[in-house]
Amino acid sequence: MSARDEILGRVRAALADVSPAVSVPTPPRAPDRGDLVALFVERVEDYRAVVTRCSAEEVLAVVTGVLDGLPGGARAVVPPDLGLDLPGAVVDAQFTAAELDGFDAVVTRAAVGIAETGTIVLDHQPDQGRRAISLVPDLHVCLVDASQVVADVPDAIELLDPARPLTWISGPSATSDIELDRVEGVHGPRTLHVVLIS
Amino acid sequence: MTGTFVGMPAFPTAAREALGDTQLRTNLAHATRTIRDKRAMVVAEVEDWEELRVAGAAVKEAALRDLATHLETLEESLVRAGATVHWAGDAAEACAIVASITHAHGVDEVVKVKSMATAEIGLNEALEAEGIAAWETDLAELIVQLGDDLPSHILVPAIHRNRAEIREIFLRRMGDVGRPAPADLTDEPAVLAGAAREHLREKFLRAKVAISGANFAVADTGTLVVVESEGNGRMCLTLPEVLISVVGIEKVVATWSDLDPMMRLLPRSSTGERMNPYTSTWSGVTPGDGPQEVHVVLLDNGRTRALADDVGRQALRCIRCSACLNVCPVYERVGGHAYGSVYPGPIGAILNPLLRGVSDEQSASLPYASSLCGACFEVCPVRIDIPSVLVDQRAAVVDSHRDDRVPKAEALAMRATAWAFSDSRRLAWAERASGLAGRVLTRFSRTTLPGGRAAAGRLPGPAAGWTGARDLPAPPEESFRAWWDRTDGGTKGDGS
Ligand code: SF4
To answer: Which of B264, B292, B354 to mutate to test the interface with A (most CBs of A within 10 A)?
Structure first.
């Protein structure tokens, strides 16, 4: 007998007298928190990420300013459909991991923002690019539209397509493995800069 | 200490040693208090936390009670999404599957995301025996691996190490296995984390094969979920060409929307954050993005044994948040190593005997590693009634000795108690005998309990098993019944 049939057989035998019926209650919803965008900004900042709020017209200037602010100016990689004509930025051409390691920054859009937890979710469509490009460079500039911000985790789960690879990002990479002392930045981007467009 | 739990002494012996280590107790007390407070703060923020727990428990319970159906659905969804599914009955089978996939790609190293399942099956050691180096990439796991040490906490495996020890391990060992630590390394946590970043980056960039576990496996969509903080998980799940995930069969949840209560419960319960820095989800292969060859190994290794236990089954709901460790007064004092398993603390005290049975002395000692205070049940995000399972497992330990030719002292004591309590004259006699023993003990005892009461330290003979891990208070000289008779319920004489 195959391992598969053996395991499934053991599972069935173990549950022979057990009724499979369990009613799963609908999880409770967080109460109305008022201004979701303000809450989102506050909670993203709680993770020691940087947030800049601006209008659609100002985005290009804001992002350029952030990149120029890096010492020596940043070499940035961008996804194919960023929809922002950033001078000097290189569009991802299926770079290898080692090639991506040569970039200082990445600029992407996002799929959803979650106010309650200060989380940004990427579903890696062409305006966000492959998972690797938003991972290897040390600075991630992420453009989130105010209309993409939802109240809580269940709203995000409803909107997101599980067939897509998803990356949920809440602040910069961090660890508390040394004496429970939180340190920002281990392997992921050490700086997360969220640009909130409204 | 070497990097394996095999041959660890039973809990009372290991605990006695750990209790003598003051540095360990200081590190643990500080760490558990910090996480406890953080958790309490973010849990208090959720108005309907209790309802959320009920929903989380129901999601996992529903998945477990119809597990065969959900596993078959999961397999179908995974295959449809381009993944290859393997089934492993035990640790040896799982390790062999991973080794053969790795060999097929002609590589002699893999990068690993922290995973309890792969630690449980001893995958690193098995791969090493096959000539494959498995690099742990979680910072704490790296500290444990470089220190040739054992993990002592589910979430913070190096909780027993302080910064000076970590600096010393990095300086001494990093150069042996890759990029050395910089010579001017200080013991600042940020500097130590920076050294780990540099050391591991070259491994991430060249790795062909990665190994992960999964926090959840969604049956109807074939989605695996990995919850992490550092980004080492994203590195492993994204950059290599081949990804092998070892997933316990109890990780399954039925539907995509079931992730809702779980993703709200887990981060708040484990690291005490509203959300952990990174969560990755993937369903099989995405063309042009991430690993193009995806394997999933579904692991039993004792889980069906636990599933067959009516009371113990609920332990399989566990989402490894480690909240129960952080509130446990026993864990806080003895630390993780004394449990002799990758699953320490209250959950370990029930999960290990459920997965392995209680025929070995080490597993049989674990259900007793608790004061039954109930704090673990209160914090558990999926409402596992750990105290009830502990009591039931204690019964299982006693039962397993029922046919022994020399019964266990505890069984003898229970039998004697039943005999004495079934007849009031016998009980009166027993109480007089106990009063006499009390007077003798009070006179000769060397130990005094807080409050000044005399206690017996370590008794000889069959009672050694009990007193070896406890100080037994000397019995009072007069029994309650004798006192009641003498004073007519406290109304005659001085009433004392
Ligand atoms: S038993 Fe409950 S509290 Fe303990 S690790 Fe598992 S889920 Fe967390």
So the answer is: B264
